[in-house]
Predict the 3D structure of the following.
Amino acid sequence: MNAGLPVFLSISDIAESTGFGEQMRRFWTMSDPAVRTAVAGTILLGLTCGMLGCFVVLRRMSLLGDSLGHAVLPGVCAGFLVTQTKHIGWIFTGAVLSALLAAGVISLIHGRTRLKADAAMGLVLSGFYGLGVVMLTRLQRLPLGNQSGLNRFLFGQASAISAQELAIMAALAGLVFIVVLLTYKELAATCFDLEFATASGIPTRAIHYLLMLLVAIAIVISIQAVGIVLLSAMLIIPAATAHLLTDRLKVMIVLSMVFGAVSGVAGANLSFLKSSLPTGPFIVAVLLLFFVLAFLFSPRYGLFTRLYGRRVQRRQSLADRIIKALAESRSGTELTAADLAATLQVSQTEATAAINMLRHDELIEVAGTGFRLTPGGVEYADALRRNERLWKAFLEREGELAGQLFDPDTDDIERVLGAEMIRELEGGT
Amino acid sequence: MIPQGEQGSADEGRPNLPDSSLGADRPLPLSVRSLTVSYDRKAVLWNVDLDVFAGRIVGVVGPNGAGKTTLIKAIMGLLPLQSGTILINGKPLKKQPGAIGYVPQRESVDWDFPVTVHDVVMMGTYGTLGLFRRPGRKQREICRRSLDQVHMSSYAHRQISNLSGGQQQRVFLARALAQEADLYLMDEPFAGVDAATEAAIIELLRTQRDTGRTILVIHHDLQSVADYFDDVLLLNRHVVAYGPVGDVFTVENLRTTYGGKLAVLPEHANGET
Ligand SMILES: Nc1ncnc2c1ncn2[C@@H]1O[C@H](COP(=O)(O)OP(=O)(O)OP(=O)(O)O)[C@@H](O)[C@H]1O
Ligand SMILES: [Mg+2]
């Protein structure tokens, strides 16, 4: 990669001279208009990328986001060359055009040669980005090159967003938002099942190109603050995080937008604390933090949550089996922990853990060297037996009760079948 | 009886309708003329002619790689044609988007997609609803009815990955029903489905047929062909035979279709063993 970190402007210079607390205060009171612009800008781009990212990720086009993100560099440089100044209108135009050109080239290579999509995207990503870096190095040798601040397009600098640029960003973000609202149902249907959507008469090709265009716009909005190198993270990570947390597309979109906006602001804040720190890497760091948390602790799909849930479930079902074993041997001698572990074929530690749980719930008690059921435990054992009998009777008769739907793992039999059905089943057995 | 070989003229290949009263002047739900489809340079389907009559359940049978999936994708306009024409109700499909209902193979989608059963079935109504319009009460009603028909109403708000294979298949059927099309194309709807569900599905298809709908079903189990279908299309890269099950589903035709590799012949196939 190239020549040093971005050149920094106004705010960052001040940042160096003052302390951490002072900078925090300056950021969060937002008395400085530059801070307000930076915050508004990162919120806008976070919302836009978060929303579009969901469709990109669900359509399995993540790599496309990455390719288009890198492919804007030559356009940015060309936009600068045209005007010889940092005129944002031209730079934005150049970026959109070069992203769309890249999208076109990818479709062309993928459609007309035997190369697969990933190869086409890899080619375009490295090709366009390489060309962009060459142009950038040339530009820096020009007299205006250095003061152009073009470098910050690589890693992003939220504080460099001007009021005029913010207005353009807001207009573009608003446009994206409206278009997505209007075509939500087509976007969702196309992402879920492309062939079915096409067959049922949805203009999926047009929707595909529309999505590309929207992604190009989102990328352009983000270049200033996030930078080209890490752009795709802004599209992919919020959506991926949200996908781990919910089973509803609309909820996923909202969550993803929130993650995008929050990490945008947090990244802007962090980079504001010390000068010469670019914004993009900080935004991505915060995004990653969210992702790791979701990956580990998502209520349904988190790694820890699942492991923990399975352990609890295992212990519960072992406890039920212990109750049954004790109930069966009630007349005879008490069973020790070792006896129970042996009859149920589990390790002694597992058995002890379950026994402790049962003792805590006062379902079993110590008797001599072993354990026996408390009166509460006897009741519980009866309930277990009854439930088992009911499920069995129900499953045997499932043919004639086929209209009744249930899920033995999660449903409570009394609630599923209703009192009447249970009476009927008990009468029959 | 004489097995019908490859079709010469269009008339020869037509099955004899049991009651010819069914609108002779109405255009056919599906009419395919000299259709050739190729991937890369290799022709997968070659010179296929096919006339499907209204109110029939047509079984499409043939070995793996015979081009069955290719045929129905071509009919739906999902593949470029090398040659040939396809008319739906006498008109090209482009003029009447959404005229065909589709049940794809179950593996064709990502079941982890964040949608509920209800959302998926609702997507069946999107085609006719048109761009920019949101589904309303009418669409919800269609959706509810379709779910009822496949006995999946109680699962309406489940995420689709929490379903068994047979239930997923029924969701696809409900989505197709929500399309309210006259012609349905189904790609192996019985794959991985238990006997009870299979019976329920065929029953559903029959009630649909009795309301005048036409259904093309790709099917692999030769034992049940005679029982399930009115007409059968034996396909292996081209049309081996096509017509009413009783006429066409013969041992000899099956041998031609499967190239003599057929070890177990179905009990119900006509002709000497
Ligand atoms: N996208 C594709 N590109 C190239 N060749 C393909 C493609 N799809 C299918 N084919 C080839 O076309 C032929 C017919 O495939 P098709 O999927 O239509 O068969 P099928 O009759 O549905 O088989 P099956 O019973 O296994 O589902 C096969 O030889 C297959 O290899
Ligand atoms: Mg197939």
